[in-house]
Write a structure and sequence with these properties.
This protein is an alpha/beta fold and 352 residues long. It is built from 12 helices and 11 strands. It is globular. 44% of the residues are buried. The mean pLDDT is 95. It is an enzyme of class 2 (transferase). Homodimer. Its cofactor is pyridoxal 5'-phosphate.
């Protein structure tokens, strides 16, 4: 009997795997969530919007764009919002790619990249990271062909942590043809303290083929509300806004995002606490003999290879994110939970 069949891509498309649940939120170091609860001012603003949930949200996201324009120093027509930066990425690739196009991206990097590429009908061209877990931008530039439509750059790289520097990106962009779209994914930009790290917004000037992705999920702690955005040339932002499903972002999410931008000083204190804890965790791991790449996000990466799944099981009840055959990513959480993880990691090494 015949029945409706999806596109053939679904015969090979892997499902996105969310971080492993834990018996309490505090023990969940597998999803790169912000460990702090919502700021009272943000929670109050979002809660107010609950009282009008019978109304459709503002499809134009006007309040969000006004606030982002003022905060980031960009024009409103350079912005396109969506359901997290990953939602914006899916929309962007669907709008700019079709069958026969290629998308170059680093690997290992964000797990959603190959899924988004395949769903857009394009062909992924993954390029291996360097030995220090950073982007090999020379190899990525070498991989660009006449079929290349988009190149993805993730800084800091998820799940390994290193950044792309300004000089590295400038040299790379000099080799990218003007008709190839370069996407800088900066989901963890607010955690970066590397003095030479690229800042995607600074790189936009004078370039018509470059966009930057940002999110409110990580530093701002709005992961559950799903809101992110793109900054880029007005012509590209306009296409993405057109391709985004109507009413994709709720007014609750928009209100929380705007309130977060207004509470940036309070959020900055939280960011500094997370960054300081990250440095302490990385220092402790290295002192215990672990090979930990430089990280400028809110996580650390342990390149455990074939031992990744066993190590993740060993860390219970702390939940960490294992990438089978590659490594384990551990989010920076509450100091007490980080200490439990470090104890488990030390016991693992002692037993080897």
């Amino acid at each position: 009997m015949a029945f409706p069949r999806p596109r053939s891509v679904f015969e090979r498309l892997p499902a996105y795997r969310a971080g492993k649940p834990a018996y309490s939120d505090a023990y969940k170091l597998s999803s790169n969530e912000n460990p702090f609860p919502p700021l009272p001012s943000v929670l109050e603003r979002a809660s107010t919007e609950l009282g009008r949930m019978n109304r459709y949200p503002d499809a134009g996201m006007a309040a969000l764009y006004r606030s982002l324009s003022a905060r980031l120093g960009v024009e409103e027509d350079q912005l396109a919002g969506g359901t997290g930066s990953v939602g914006v990425l899916f929309t962007l690739l669907a709008a700019f790619c079709e069958a026969g196009d290629e998308v170059v991206y680093p690997w290992r990097s964000f797990e959603a990249y190959p899924i988004a590429v395949d769903l857009a009908g394009a062909t992924g061209v993954p390029i291996a990271l360097r030995d220090d877990a950073s982007h090999d931008l020379d190899a990525m530039a070498d991989a660009i062909t006449e079929a290349t439509r988009v190149v993805l750059v993730c800084s800091p790289n998820n799940p390994t942590g290193p950044v792309v520097t300004r000089d590295e990106l400038d040299a790379f962009l000099a080799r990218v043809p003007s008709d190839v779209l370069v996407v800088i994914d900066e989901a963890y930009a607010e955690f970066v303290r590397h003095p030479a790290a690229v800042r995607g917004l600074d790189a936009l000037a004078g370039r018509d083929n470059l966009v930057v992705l940002r999110t409110f999920s990580k530093a701002y702690g709005l992961a559950g509300l799903r809101i992110g955005f793109l900054v880029g040339p007005p012509a590209i932002a306009s296409v993405v806004r057109t391709a985004t499903a109507p009413f994709a972002v709720t007014d609750i999410a928009i209100a929380a995002a705007v309130a977060s931008l207004e509470a940036v000083d309070e959020l900055e204190q939280r960011l500094e606490a997370i960054v300081a804890e990250r440095e302490d965790v990385m220092t402790a791991l290295r002192a215990d003999g672990w090979d930990v790449p430089d990280t400028h996000a809110n996580f650390v990466w342990l390149p455990l290879g074939a031992d990744s799944l066993d190590f993740a099981a060993h860390c219970a009840p702390v939940s960490v994110r294992a990438f089978d055959g590659e490594g384990v990513r551990v989010t920076i959480g509450d100091p007490e939970i980080n200490a439990e993880f470090l104890t488990a990691a030390a016991r693992w090494r002692a037993a080897r």
